[in-house]
Write a structure and sequence with these properties.
disordered C terminus, Immunoglobulin-like, disordered N terminus, six-stranded mixed beta sheet
């Protein structure tokens, strides 16, 4: 209690000084009264621990036209919950020099229109057995000889080990524009500002020494408007819960929590549009002993003027290019206030592009246009109107005219929107195809070619694309995938079919087609005929390929010669093969053969890829025919021009040996082919001499 007695002595001495010497400067009202304001740690509240001091700055002003003498300051207290009065001797008053603040006048009087400061320090102490007061109200009365009634101001003393505050004033925000830098740094963005909330440990012991506190302090975002985002780099900040936790503070520690506040919404009203002068962002701060305080941050939103124009198109096409009637196009235009406060707009037009005869631009109410004041974007403030333009008939495809509309903000000349309107005569489309023939014949493996003529029936240049349809084995192809044709222009391309190499004679391709598509019209199928086609058919010619060759038996022996005696008979054979693509009726004949050599038949029907063995009957004369006899077999296809001749066949006749019969039958047993019948005369005589010889 020795320290407290010392403090009380200081208070008494100070009070005596104030009563006798110090006249605290005040502010006077027009009626001669003083005015005063009290500033604590936060607003009119100051904080102190149980053994600490709560301090206030008292500003006294003379606002009237007189000076004030013997300015007196009196301080009284009452418990905010029980109205129990504190002893006024808990407070001391000084001229603030000690803490670095210089009073404007400390001479005992307050000059006309002047201001002076006094510092009030309230010592918090506990009576025996008395608990700490949570909140105490302090009343300060200021009087003078000229204003004996004086002025009363109130402050609060919160008895706690800590308090939270922010020295940041009102900060301004602006919506981002397209030309704002793309950065993640808050300081470089007009829509982001930083605020610092300081949590101060003010706990002291009975010897006025700073002490640490282990109280858990939470700071929570309690109030924030739509369109704002609050975040902090402080490690204890939980962005999902929008809350930070502080687990104790060291002795005398001040913990600064930096918050980034960002204007993220696109529909935030400007402060000028609202009845309030600022937006509030409120933090609620509590400790484990249920002490509560709040920190309020203040923000304003700057005016942002913008305009959004919809309903304008760069190009508007009309389909009267093939018509004799004029066309009218229209645009439903919306001018929207895209700013965050009231605005009006002036709408002007540059019609130089519509000066050609027959073109005209109109709007109900005439041109130019001025809007009424429009609500901001979040109130859907907009102005609607219709523009019409007339397009003369009979114009070439692609003919275009247009005009420009400029919308200017009435509040900000730099806010401008320029829209271009244009109408273009649409192209008419059409394709015609012609072909030189509808059918053709060709040999297997060869190409049949058709000439296709394409004509552009539209009113402007067009590109015609071509595709084919038909059996893949016939390889339908066109010589060009596309042709670019001028208006009414034409050009040709080849359409080919390739007859398969293995095609049988008379086989037809079936229908093969060329399709033509207008590239320009393909996107507007409802407006024009954009497709045409032609079809063709190709038939495979018959290919004749006959081969006449030696006969080869089943053991692989080539039979091209025979030996027999006079008077004997035998059969030889030749093989006729068909290598063509269809059945062939072959004519067979002997070349250079003696009269006693005869074909078994002179015609044969040989299937595609097939062959036939032709028998040759050899009847050796009974005499005068010994020696070698040669001949050939010739085959001719039904076309009459395709022939093939075997190599030389040889018959060797020897003299009849002694004891031989008068006649002999000779067959080729190995081949299993029929020979001539037995000679009836020999059968009658009962002599059967059969000589079997192998060819």
């Amino acid at each position: 209690m020795e320290q407290k007695s010392s403090k009380f002595g200081v208070f008494v001495a100070t009070l005596a000084m104030i009563a006798s010497v110090l006249v605290i400067p005040t502010v006077s009202a027009e009626d001669g009264d003083l005015t005063a304001s009290l500033t604590g740690d936060v607003g009119t509240t100051s904080y102190s621990s149980e053994f600490g001091n709560a301090t206030f700055d008292l500003a006294i002003t003379s606002a009237s036209g007189i000076a004030h003498h013997n300015v007196t300051v009196n301080v009284t207290f009452r418990d905010s919950t029980t109205d129990k009065e504190w002893n006024e001797h808990y407070s001391t008053i000084s001229d603030c020099v000690g803490d670095g603040t210089t009073a404007s006048n400390v001479t005992g009087h307050l000059a006309e229109g002047d201001t002076m400061h006094a510092c009030i320090s309230v010592m918090v102490e506990l009576s025996s057995g008395e608990a700490s007061k949570e909140q105490v109200t302090m009343e300060v009365r200021v009087t003078s000889d000229e204003d004996t009634t004086g002025v009363v101001v109130e402050g609060s003393i919160a008895i706690v080990n800590w308090y939270a505050s922010s020295d940041d004033g009102i900060q301004s925000f602006r919506e981002l524009n397209e030309d704002d830098a793309d950065t993640n740094v808050c300081a470089d963005k007009p829509n982001c500002q930083t605020y610092t909330i300081s949590v101060k440990n003010i706990k002291v012991d009975s010897d006025d020494n700073a002490e640490s506190t282990d109280e858990t302090i939470s700071i929570r975002l309690a109030e924030v408007g739509v369109g704002w985002n609050v975040n902090s780099s402080y490690g204890g900040w939980n962005i999902m819960e929008a809350e930070a936790t502080i687990n104790g503070l060291d002795a005398g520690q001040t913990l600064d929590l930096v918050f980034e506040v960002t204007l993220v919404g696109g529909n935030i009203p400007a402060t000028s549009y609202l009845a309030e002068s600022y937006n509030q962002i409120v933090f609620e701060v509590r400790d484990s002993n249920s002490f509560y305080s709040s920190v309020t941050l203040y923000a304003t939103v700057a005016d942002n003027f913008a305009v959004l124009v919809t309903g304008a198109f760069d190009t508007y096409t009309v389909d009267n290019g093939c018509s004799d009637d004029a066309a009218t196009v229209s645009w439903d235009v919306e001018v929207r206030n895209y700013g965050n406060t009231w605005d009006t707009f002036a709408i002007s037009f540059d019609l130089a592009g519509t000066e050609a005869e027959g073109w005209d631009v109109t709007s109900e109410g005439g041109l130019p246009i001025t809007t009424d004041a429009l609500l901001p974007k979040f109130e859907n403030g907009k102005f609607l109107f219709t523009l019409e333009m007339t397009i003369p008939a009979g114009l070439d495809a692609g003919t275009s005219q247009g005009f420009t509309m400029t919308v200017n903000s009435g509040a900000d000349n730099d806010v401008t929107s320029i829209s271009e309107f244009a109408a273009t005569v649409e192209q008419c489309y059409g394709v015609t195809l012609a072909i030189d023939k509808s059918s053709d014949m060709a040999n297997p493996g060869s190409v049949s070619t058709f000439v296709v003529t394409a004509t552009n029936d539209g009113n402007g240049e067009d590109t015609i694309d071509f595709t084919t349809m038909g059996p893949a084995s016939w390889s339908p192809m066109v010589s060009a995938d596309s042709l670019t044709l001028a208006r009414n222009g034409e050009d040709t391309l080849d359409f080919t079919l390739t007859v398969p190499a293995d095609a049988e004679a008379g086989v037809k391709s079936g229908m093969a087609m060329v399709h033509a598509f207008s590239e320009g019209c393909a996107e507007q199928t409802s407006a024009c005929e954009y497709e045409e086609h032609v079809s063709v058919t190709v038939t495979a010619n018959q290919i004749f390929a006959i081969t006449a060759d030696y006969y080869t038996n089943e053991t692989g022996d080539v039979k091209k010669s025979v030996e027999l005696e006079e008077g004997q008979q035998v059969q030889m054979f030749a093989t006729i093969s068909n290598g063509g693509n269809g059945g062939d009726r072959v004519t067979i004949e002997l070349v250079g053969a003696p009269a006693w050599v005869v074909l078994s038949k002179d015609t044969a029907l040989v299937s595609k890829g097939g062959s036939e063995d032709i028998a040759i009957d050899v009847r050796a004369p009974a005499s005068e025919a010994t020696g070698d006899h040669t001949f050939q077999v010739k085959a001719t296809s039904q076309d009459g021009t395709t022939t093939s001749t075997t190599g030389t066949l040889t018959i060797t006749i020897e003299e009849k040996s002694a004891g031989s019969g008068s006649s002999t039958e000779t067959v080729d047993e190995d081949e299993g082919l029929p020979g001539f019948g037995a000679i009836s005369a020999l059968a009658a005589l009962g002599v059967a001499l059969i000589l079997r010889r192998r060819l």
